[in-house]
């Protein structure tokens, strides 16, 4: 069996000290560009693989960041995760991904597992039901960045998009177009984004003295199946809505599937969707989207978590993007 290469072998071959090799591999301290290139050339030629476990124990750093998202099947969250990964891996960090499935118990288990793995930071799109655990994690010195949604009572960096103001604007535009019977596919009440989007809808209707008929409000759970269920519920109202506001893109997808399955013209109801549908040009629709930017969320979250790891004493930051409202039809 060939002898396992060590940092001493790399140092001897490169003609430098083991401390210099360590500074190059760990990206710490000053090393001239020529020496850095020389060491990395030897590392590449010898196919040397640093012992990441030993390195992390020695430095008390794991070079690992945990990400907990609520739905890995949703392109919005997967795009966020991809761009967090790109930014953090470029800085030498590896990522562990967990899917909570919008379940507080699964989220709690994921957080426990990530702490067992000694992650240096956690990026979370949370359920709003593990506040004490999150505060304990933060107090333990682990960096915490909340994405997509705030969690009341948790003092952490936040990267998210506006919810209430943009839904207010979108519903106001529906009213400008003459709609008075507006249905709502709401999200889970326990999730702050759902509450904020619903508040924006209700505020727009109140300002115009328009009634929000309880029969036209369907509480979904951010899944396609709940969008299907909304078709059966909302279109059974008398009279049915002429427009529907869906509080996330997966429920919008389910709503259109439900219309097709019921044999109803998909363009018979005007729809406002919080979140885009990439396939919408493939069928007849009257669709307006509140266009989120998961690339911005992911890149900004990556930069924020790296800054927090590097400088734990920095003041907490809240970065909010204002989504645009765009007609697709």
Automatic annotation (TrEMBL):
InterPro entries for this protein: HTH_LacI, Lambda_DNA-bd_dom_sf, Peripla_BP/Lac1_sug-bd_dom, Peripla_BP_I
UniProt keyword list: DNA-binding, Repressor, Transcription, Transcription regulation
Pfam families: LacI, Peripla_BP_1
Entry's Gene Ontology molecular function annotations: DNA-binding transcription factor activity; transcription cis-regulatory region binding
SMART domains: HTH_LACI
Occurrences of domain HTH lacI-type (ranges): 5-59
Protein name from the UniProt record: LacI family transcriptional regulator
Organism the protein comes from: Paenibacillus antri
Taxonomy of the source species: Bacteria, Bacillati, Bacillota, Bacilli, Bacillales
């Amino acid at each position: 069996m060939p002898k396992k290469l060590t940092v001493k072998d790399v140092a001897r071959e490169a003609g430098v000290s083991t401390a210099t090799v360590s500074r190059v591999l760990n990206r710490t301290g000053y090393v001239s560009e020529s020496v850095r290139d020389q060491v990395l050339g030897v590392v590449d030629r010898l196919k040397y693989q640093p012992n990441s476990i030993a390195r992390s124990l020695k430095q008390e750093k794991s070079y690992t960041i945990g990400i907990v998202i609520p739905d890995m099947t949703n392109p919005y969250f997967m795009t966020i995760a991809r761009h967090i990964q790109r930014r953090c891996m470029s800085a030498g960090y590896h990522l562990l991904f967990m899917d909570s499935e919008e379940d507080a118990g699964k989220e709690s288990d994921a957080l426990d597992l990530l702490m067992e793995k000694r992650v240096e930071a956690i990026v979370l799109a949370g359920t709003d039901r593990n506040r004490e655990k999150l505060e304990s994690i933060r107090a333990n010195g682990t960096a915490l960045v909340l994405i997509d949604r705030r969690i009341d009572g948790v003092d952490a960096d936040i990267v998210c998009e506006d919810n209430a103001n943009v839904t207010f604007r979108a519903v106001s535009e529906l009213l400008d177009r003459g709609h008075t019977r507006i249905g709502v596919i709401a999200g889970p009440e326990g999730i702050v984004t759902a509450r904020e989007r619903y508040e924006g809808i209700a505020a727009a209707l109140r300002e115009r003295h328009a009634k929000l008929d309880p029969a036209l409000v369907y509480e979904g759970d951010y899944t396609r199946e709940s969008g299907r269920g909304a078709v059966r519920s909302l279109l059974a109202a008398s009279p049915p809505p002429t427009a529907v506001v869906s509080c996330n893109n997966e429920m919008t997808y389910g709503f259109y599937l439900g219309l097709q399955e019921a044999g109803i013209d998909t363009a018979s109801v005007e729809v406002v969707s919080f979140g885009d549908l990439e396939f919408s040009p493939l069928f007849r629709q009257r669709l307006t989207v509140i266009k989120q930017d998961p690339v911005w969320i992911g890149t900004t979250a990556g930069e924020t978590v790296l800054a927090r790891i590097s400088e734990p004493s920095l003041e907490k930051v809240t970065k909010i993007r204002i989504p645009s409202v765009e007609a697709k039809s």
